[in-house]
Design goal:
Elements: H1 2-19, E1 21-24, E2 29-32, H2 42-60, H3 65-81, H4 84-102, H5 107-122, H6 126-144, H7 149-164, H8 168-184, H9 191-206, H10 210-227, H11 233-248, H12 252-269, H13 275-295, H14 300-330, H15 341-371, H16 381-397, H17 405-423, H18 436-457
Antiparallel strand pairs: 1-2
Helix pairs in contact: 1-2, 2-3, 3-4, 4-5, 5-6, 6-7, 7-8, 8-9, 9-10, 10-11, 11-12, 12-13, 13-14, 13-15, 14-15, 15-16, 15-17, 16-17, 17-18
Pfam families: TPR_10 (PF13374), TPR_12 (PF13424)
Keywords: Coiled coil, Membrane, TPR repeat, Transmembrane, Transmembrane helix
Protein name: Protein KINESIN LIGHT CHAIN-RELATED 1 isoform X2
Length: about 450
């Protein structure tokens, strides 16, 4: 009897350890946390959880719900280990036992089906995931009610799967209803609700429903202003998202005002050479450049003032991003930056911002030259210099851990502009420059490499 009690206590200990999970907003799911000195390796943990299943069977019976919990726990471990082929039978067996014990309409079955749906979603088995979520939603609706937070959770996940399956209208309706339930339950300002609103805005942006995206982002910013104020980077990032949509909608004045406010707030919270400040300056410069283009036909002096402002912002953005890359390179981290996730992310972002800023400044110089109507077809030497720097900058980091598909896409954009400039015949024709033939070959190579990446983004 004492031995059996010890075994059951051991089983409970393993179970409690496995069930300790924390929510990770960026991942859209739970991260399993294994505690205790016994679990220094996942392989060791697997042995204990397999033993826990056997102990549960001996203590409670072969088809007892405790055994289902043990199967589910082992399945969760396999999911973390990404051994999906082992995890699926565990999930299915847990559901079978729960259905035998409580019936097919029990809430515990609904929760298990939700977990299985999440498991399939991670593997992009969308039809299987959709089926699990639909069954779980019906059970939760009947048992918990159609206004329950858990019902809304499954509703949201089903909506995300339907969106991935291309059923956008049904997806949008489900996600909006899940948000409404949270709001009616007093959770409208929760992280959970904010994350769902952001996903909804992202859906609208991808569908080019810019007005709907703008309305959702205004709502997000309003919530963040009330809950966190402008001394929070979360609020600033929310404002950034709204400004981008306003820019896409052609609301340049409001977009610039919002971005200027973001820049002031960031300068009060971050070091002056932080990459977020460089990115903020780049975004303002792009808005100012577009405004300048609109002013050319009506007020040339204001257009020139706007271009001067844009040039100053872009030069500062280039200075900051170059400084970050120089610091990282000086530490000798170019090849091994993946060992430091924070620095690696900053470095990749700095390279992207630098390429974008050089490209934008090159485009700005072309615009400035074209505004000088007294000169006929002036040489665009400064623009050529800037765009050539894009080429040389990328070459420094080619093959490093900075050389991601996102970086390649920005590099390709720079090369296309440089190629167009050289083709126009308005360049310096100096020796030592990259040739037009080499540019075209490089662009063709990049287009092939980037094709799957762009399809995925669209």
């Amino acid at each position: 009897m004492v031995l059996r009690m010890v075994r059951l206590l051991d089983y409970a200990k393993w179970r409690m350890v496995l069930l300790y999970r924390i929510y990770i907003p960026q991942s859209g799911g739970f991260l399993l946390i294994l505690l205790g000195t016994y679990f220094c390796r996942l392989e060791d943990a697997e042995k204990y959880f397999i033993s826990a299943i056997q102990e549960a069977k001996e203590g409670f019976g072969e088809r007892d719900p405790h055994v289902a919990s043990a199967f589910n726990n082992l399945a969760e471990l396999y999911r973390v280990m990404k051994t999906f082929d082992k995890a699926e039978p565990m999930y299915l067996e847990a559901i079978n036992i729960l259905e035998e014990s409580y019936g097919t309409e029990d809430i515990r079955v609904g929760s298990a089906l939700h977990n299985l749906g999440q498991f399939y979603l991670v593997q992009r088995k969308l039809k299987e995931s959709c089926n699990c979520y639909e069954r779980a939603l019906k059970i939760k609706g009947r048992v918990l009610g159609f206004g329950h937070v858990d019902y809304a959770d499954t509703m949201y996940h089903l909506g995300t799967v339907l969106y991935l399956l291309g059923e956008e209208k049904d997806s949008e309706a489900l996600i909006q209803d899940s948000i409404r339930i949270l709001e009616e339950g007093g959770l409208g300002e929760s992280i959970l609700c904010i994350r769902r609103l952001r996903y909804l805005a992202k859906m609208h942006m991808k569908s080019n429903n810019l007005l709907e995206a703008e309305n959702v982002q205004r709502k997000i910013l309003h919530i963040m202003e009330l809950s966190k104020g402008w001394n929070s980077l979360e609020t600033i990032n929310s404002a950034d998202g709204l400004a981008s949509t306003l820019y896409a909608n052609g609301c340049l004045k409001e977009a610039q005002e919002l971005l200027e406010r973001c820049l002031d707030a960031r300068k009060s919270l971050l070091p002056e050479d932080h990459i977020q400040i460089a990115a903020n300056m780049l975004h303002i410069a792009r808005v100012v450049m577009l405004s300048s283009n609109e002013l050319k036909a009506t007020d040339v002096s204001k257009a020139v003032t706007a271009t001067d402002r844009a040039r100053e912002l872009l030069n500062n953005s280039i200075r900051i991003s170059r400084g970050i890359l120089y610091t990282i390179s000086k530490r000798g981290e170019k090849k091994e930056i993946h060992k430091d996730g924070g620095s690696g992310k900053d470095g990749r972002t700095a390279l992207i911002i630098l390429l974008q800023s050089l490209d934008s400044l090159g485009n700005l110089e072309i615009t400035v030259q074209e505004m000088q109507v007294s000169k006929k077809d002036p040489l665009l030497i400064e623009a050529e210099n800037l765009l050539t720097q894009c080429f040389s900058t990328y070459q420094k980091f080619k093959g490093s851990t900075f050389d991601t598909l996102e970086v390649k896409a920005e590099y390709c954009t720079c090369l296309k502009r440089l190629s167009s400039l050289i083709s126009s015949g308005r360049t310096s024709k100096q020796t030592g420059r990259v040739s037009l033939e080499d540019l075209k070959d490089e662009i063709s190579r990049l287009e092939v490499e980037l094709s799957p990446y762009r399809k995925q983004k669209s």
